[in-house]
Specification:
- The protein has helices spanning 22-36, 49-63, 82-94, 103-128, 130-142, 144-149, 156-175, 181-198, 201-217, 228-250, 253-268, 280-288, 293-305, 310-328, 341-354, 357-361, 365-394, 399-419, 423-448, 454-465, 481-487, 497-506, 519-524; strands spanning 70-71, 74-75, 472-476, 492-494, 510-515, 533-543, 548-557.
- With 564 residues, it is α/β, with parallel strands linked by helices.
- Helix 1 runs parallel beside helix 5 and helix 13 crosses helix 15.
- It is globular.
- The termini are far apart.
């Protein structure tokens, strides 16, 4: 039964104290809505991955071709078809009349993140009991990385949802808990969905868990409860048709680009991002799993000392091999290790509720003190950074964000105060602080920034002065996918200013976006006696796709001269 000192209602637990009640799962879904919905509509499309995925999905709807994946006239063979199908289905269901609005493309990520949170609760309850499962789910809902991914129209949150279903089924087989045909069907279906979303990443998580359990427990006979002899053909039946179709349509280019130029290039060549050293994901955990990273540090000795216990062994087999692969990868982006976060949250919640016994037996004052100092430093840095961001970007103060940042710091203080005696309430304080902070950051502060969203600026200006009924843009140098998504698939990307000038001379309906470095070549490309371009505005700010300031001049053609 739950600890008497917890503030979590008793109605969230089944009468036997071994499971969470339907009310608890309903609460978690509502918590996900509260965390993830702010900003889904108001946050502009981001560069580059999100806008590329959304634009490719939009083109599927526009063309009716749901096999090939294209970004304007170029193939986009980096990921399988799953996320594009999900996004296209979401748009057709919720917002078919407005293909240039990003929010409907984000719904699969929101759903995937919510499934991941709910399944974290279910799996944590299975492994350690309902209270650790419930706390772990709230940690997942409140951590920085999942809050980011739940709002982006890309693969990672949806993939996490499929991974959680597969790992839940795998854990039930491993622990021999009420196995039936529905569990095995869920396992192989989740694997199929994960493969269609992001190729072999779900297999990396599942197979590494299996290998870890094989070497620690010396057998995998329990895996037969998932009926692999029927499951593998079922999986192939689900995933093979599209792979065969795209290989035929692309003449093998999909395999070359997705496996060779995307996956292996990221792993072993750094994909033009430089060689980043191992350990970077571990350092980033302090920010990406904030505000619960302190608990992760304090729980680590207990997790290792209890590594032979079946439930802990399962979680470590999930975390360690996958983490090592991505630490060795030369390309390191924070979301790569997201598939391990639910297992980290489950172990953290378990040993938080136990009182971190390894540290209690052998007090490591240096670990406590250094961990708390680092955690407070990270929290203060995040709070101050977002309090200052509106001023640094647009030279305005956002007092609501300042208040939200102050609440986050107060939540850290409350969590420290409660940590020794009321550990559940300590975690709840951080959940509440994170909810207030995340909701304001994503729902208000970021969408209201002007200089962070150059594509939005440029399209808004162009819409107000477009020469013809339908907006069409030609852009010289600035070619971010967010511009194509917002302005339309027929946006023309010119190689230089002269090409943009030629396009505008041939098509008077075009609105030109000319990078400041291309402006001179653009203007000199117009013959002196011909119609000249007229600048009617500027869009300027930080190009987050490239990481440097950008200034775009917005041009239309001057109206023809009137002769008497």
């Amino acid at each position: 039964m739950p600890d008497r000192q917890t503030s979590i209602p008793a109605q969230f637990f089944a009468p036997d104290g071994k499971n969470l009640s339907p009310l608890a799962y309903a609460f978690l879904v509502l918590l996900c809505v509260a965390f993830f919905i702010p900003g889904i509509v108001s946050l502009p499309p981001t560069d580059r991955d999100e806008s590329s995925f959304a634009q490719a999905s939009k083109q599927m709807i526009e063309t009716g071709n749901y096999v090939d994946i294209r970004l304007q006239d170029k193939p986009r063979y980096k990921k399988p078809i799953g996320i594009y199908w999900l996004q296209a289905a979401s748009v057709k269901l919720f917002n078919a009349a407005h293909l240039n609005e990003i929010w409907a493309y984000r719904i699969p990520s929101f759903v995937g993140a919510t499934v991941a949170v709910v399944m974290t609760a279910a799996l944590g309850s299975l492994l350690f009991g309902p209270l650790p499962g419930f706390l772990a789910a709230m940690m997942m809902a409140g951590c920085v990385l999942l809050n980011v991914e739940a709002r982006l129209a890309k693969t990672d949150a949806a993939l996490l949802g499929s991974i959680m279903v597969a790992q839940y089924a795998l854990a039930r087989a491993y622990l021999n808990i009420r196995m039936n045909g529905r569990v095995s069907l869920a396992f192989w279906t989740a694997l199929s969905v994960g493969i269609l979303l992001k190729g072999p990443i779900i297999l990396l998580v599942v197979l590494s868990t299996l290998l870890w359990l094989r070497f620690t427990n010396k057998n995998l006979k329990w895996f037969m409860a998932l009926k692999p002899l029927a499951g593998i053909p079922y999986l192939l039946l689900l995933v093979a048709p599209w792979f065969i179709a795209i290989l035929l349509q692309s003449h093998g280019a999909f395999l070359e680009q997705s496996a060779g130029q995307d996956m292996f290039a990221k792993l072993w060549q750094g994909q033009n991002r430089g060689m980043l050293p191992p350990g970077l994901h571990l350092v980033a955990l302090s920010v990406m799993f904030f505000p619960f990273a302190l608990f992760v540090l304090l729980a680590t000795p207990d997790a290792w000392e209890n590594r032979h216990r079946p439930a802990v062994c399962f979680c470590l087999g999930w975390i360690i091999p996958t983490w090592i692969v991505f630490e060795l990868s030369l390309t390191k982006l924070p979301h790569y290790v997201l598939p391990t976060y639910p297992a980290i949250a489950i172990l953290t919640a378990k040993f938080l509720l136990d009182g971190f016994p390894a540290l209690a037996e052998k007090p490591r004052r240096w670990m406590w003190m250094s961990g708390i100092a680092l955690w407070l430093l990270v929290g203060t840095g995040i709070a101050v950074a977002f309090a200052l961001l509106p001023y640094l970007s647009d030279h305005v103060w956002n007092f609501g964000q300042i208040a939200a940042s102050a609440l986050l710091i107060l939540a850290q203080g409350a969590a420290l105060f409660l940590l020794m005696q009321r550990k559940t309430d300590s975690a709840l304080a951080l959940v509440i602080g994170s909810l207030m902070f995340m909701s304001f950051v994503f729902g208000s502060t970021l969408p209201r920034l002007q200089h962070l969203w150059i594509s939005r600026q440029a399209v808004q200006i162009a819409e107000t002065i477009k020469p013809c009924d339908r907006l069409q843009i030609v852009s010289a140098s600035y070619e971010e996918p967010s511009l194509v998504f917002l302005a339309g698939t027929d946006t023309v990307i010119a190689h230089d200013g002269a090409d943009a000038a030629t396009a505008m001379q041939h098509n008077g309906c075009l609105v030109g976006l000319i990078d400041s470095k291309r402006q001179q070549s653009f203007l000199t490309a117009f013959p002196k006696r011909a119609r000249q371009p007229m600048m009617i505005g500027k869009a300027e700010g930080l190009n987050i796709g490239q990481g440097h300031p950008t200034e775009l001049a917005v041009y239309i053609m001057q109206p023809p001269a009137k002769h008497p």
